[in-house]
Amino acid sequence: MTFDNLVHRINELAETQRDRGTYFEYLARAYFQNEPTYQNEFKNVWMLADVPEEFGVPKVDLGVDLVAEKFTGELVAIQAKFYKHTIQKSNIDSFLGELGKDYYESGIIVASTDRWGKNAEKALADRSDVIRIGLSDLRNSQIDWTKFSFESPEVVTVKAKKGLRYYQKNAIDSALKHFRKNDRGQLIMAPGTGKTFTSLKIAEAMAREASKEQYTILYLVPSIQLLTQTLRGWNNDTEMTMSSMAVTSDRNASRGSVKQDESNITIKASDIGYPATTSSKKVIENYLELMTRPKKELLVVFGTYQSIDVLGEAQKDGFPEFDLIIADEAHRTTGAKALGDEASAFTKVHSDLNVKGTKRLYQTATPKLYGTDAKKKAEENSIIISSMDDESLYGSVFYRLGFGDAISHDILTDYKLMVLAVDETVVQKDMQKSLADSENGLNIDDVGRIIGVWNGMIKRESFSDKVSGEPMKRAIAFSRTIEDSKRLSQQFENVVNDYLNSDEGYSVNVRHVDGSMNALEKNEALDWLASDDIPEDSARILSNVRFLTEGIDVPNLDAIIFLSPRKSQVDIVQAVGRIIRKFEGKDYGYIILPIVVPEGATPESILDNNKTYDVIWQVLNALRSVDERFEATINKLELNKQKPKNIQVIGVGAAPDDPNFNDGYVKEPTVAYQTELELDWEAVEGAIYGKIVQKVGDRRYLEDWSKDVADIARRHIQGIEFTLEQNPDSKYAFEKFLQSLQHNINESIDQSQAIEMLAQHLITLPIFDALFGEYSFVKNNPVSSAMEQIVEELSQFGFEKEQKELQPFYDSVRLRAEGIDNAQAKQKIIITLYDKFFSTGFKSTTERLGIVFTPVEVVDFIVKSVDVVLRKHFSKTLASENVHILDPFTGTGTFITRTLHYLKSLMDSGEITFDDILISWSPSCFLNNSIPVFLVLRQPIWKHTTIWESIFERNSILRPVFM
């Protein structure tokens, strides 16, 4: 039985409101006695009638239903309200009056409704001694409500604590090793990988290693919302005894008022669900009271960054220096200030002058760095910058788990980007009812985006009635302003019904949330979104501006929707973090970007100079900044012929003929009309992909990569030289290898050239595997095999360690090269890489041998020109009998492979036949391995591989030629 079933059961079991209240009190008592956060706070929890006489508490019902005794001996009054209606001030007046009595130190109100009247809200806002708890807090507690019954309310089962995953263990080991020698360090982990839990286990491990009677920790967060989550999370999962304190500032932890372009939740201290203080005096009093009791292993102060001044004052009055300060969402602690100005609340964490701490751990998913230009400008203007690459402030990164790595290792769910290109012509033609309604406040772009969202969530394919999988059930939408968000929630269903000309079919319910709501309402909205009770053919969207980016844990969330450009890349990344949490049955999280394509737009002008499309480039750039896989996908877009699976461009036209078209039966659509966009969709789709490359791609991608490759090659050379110097046995093995090269290739090859050759082999092998992994030719090549043999022998003498340290780079190389789906693109990568590789990493070799690589486009021109000359002056073609093609100085094999492709194009056009090629071509026509100067390098392997790739390219009719 779920928690909600238990609440419904109260209504079934009880005949009177008094009885319903009693049953609800049983739930509340079970919660306070067994929820770890309160179990660590309360020594006893009684029904009012059961409070021991020694406390002198009157047993008259004046609003107090339960009483809890803290470990410090103080009493807490608890009122349990089982109401459906809005709670008014009159409903809590008597309870608040009781809190003024000497025997109660503070109070808690537990209510079954999240609706509070304005006067009731104000009454709580004026009290620092009252907290409130809603159904969401009980529903999402550590108590296993499926095993609870009103027949035996004393029997309560608590869920098991979380266990460490392998990568979290690695983070702990790295932290311990790092902090033994350093006072500051950074933990970078993607959203959804468990930073909060990992930092708890790091703190516990450091506490054990410190062997102190009590280890003191300060955990700082940017908002009260995150403070609440962290406090509960740590209490739920700690394996040590823990005393907790919550400290906030006397102003809102986010910002003051909620403006139309803001979204920060103005959570009051009363919504923390745990006693909090804003007073340094109270911090000291609580600390001194705790010191009179047996000390627990951990003393953890959970505070907002805005409370640092309170904590600093408390330390001046005797509160101890913290053994460890954890700065959560550490990207928020970056910033700039003029010399002499007071630091912001967020940057004060860096200095012991503000809050004293022995060690500082900074953790975030999105590290924020300032560029060289910004730093230079700041220095010129006497501006002090806090940037996360400043190790004097933040320390070095001791553990990093990025988006790409977390997804590749199946820690997080992969994501797909959906660009929904809505045809403006369709909106104008079919949506007149929505456009003509002067009351709804929607313009043509608003209506178009709603249509795009609906088509995206149902996974409808471009201009068809087909769908690609099960429709989505849950999404969070981000609007430009609160008014836009409210309009979306009010008009979404009406617009979709107008689009479908029906109220049947897949329906999407939208609710608006913003920072003016109390925490209980916000939590209930999230529970509504995450509910398993969503009807089969419907979905739910929570619409907001910004406040659902941080600290939202809805693992079954399917999608996030960006309806307008975003100002912050960090916000985008944090939002994406909401959809990549693992959940059973979820294969992907989706990022939905609906745009409206203007009437008359051509492939050439698509997405040009339109601010509404900025959201696409902002989201793509944000993803590139944190996910190397995504960056590689974008930069391979112009190389590959196939479209990427994780970036989908979907054309949205007229509504399906049948509103229930996604029920598995697809009828042939009745085509009433076809717009220009639909008719020209293939070209438009290609143009959008091209614009993505133009706007977001890195034109220096391969060149920069080549510099990386050259740097690693130099490290390999140094590693080999060091191994040979330190180990006589390795020197003997290498000399045998060198002698074999001199005997079989060229007597002039010396030791340095042989070492260079090995370094090139080591660095290019993973590239071969990524580009040509399906061909065993690379591994069977005799030159490659010989070099692999000597590398294995050197590994016995310590060289293997150097290679293991470079594994992350090898993974990066493989990521950038794999997935190229055509020979021409592979050839381009090889030429660019090798050209820059040699000119950067082996400058002397390049100058000595005169290495120059001809661009593919130039090669294609030469090949075609030769064929034209043969036709014009000799009445022959490149495929004619007795026309031989020789390439005695083959480098990367570009001339041979492009000639093969040119001949295939002639065959496809019917100008020559397959027999013509068979007669004219054999391996002896073009392969010449007798040039020793090139064999000193790595190029014979490049040459053979690229030519073989051209011959065996998938679906190539040339395949039988050399088999």
UniProtKB/TrEMBL annotation:
InterPro entries: Helicase/UvrB_N (IPR006935), Helicase_ATP-bd (IPR014001), Helicase_C-like (IPR001650), Helicase_Restrict-Modif_Enz (IPR050742), ISP_coupler (IPR053980), Mrr-like_dom (IPR039442), P-loop_NTPase (IPR027417), Restrct_endonuc-II-like (IPR011335)
A GO CC term attached to the entry: cytosol
Pfam families listed in its UniProt record: Helicase_C (PF00271), ISP_coupler (PF22240), Mrr_cat_2 (PF13156), ResIII (PF04851)
UniProt keyword list: DNA damage, Hydrolase, SOS response
One function term, GO molecular function aspect: DNA binding
GO BP of this protein: SOS response
Source species, domain of life: Bacteria
All copies of domain Helicase ATP-binding, residue ranges: 176-385
SUPFAM superfamilies in UniProt: P-loop containing nucleoside triphosphate hydrolases, Restriction endonuclease-like, S-adenosyl-L-methionine-dependent methyltransferases
All copies of domain Helicase C-terminal, residue ranges: 459-645
Record-linked PANTHER family: ATP-DEPENDENT HELICASE IRC3-RELATED, TYPE I RESTRICTION ENZYME ECOKI R PROTEIN
Protein name in UniProt: Type I restriction enzyme EcoKI subunit R
The species this protein was found in: Streptococcus mitis
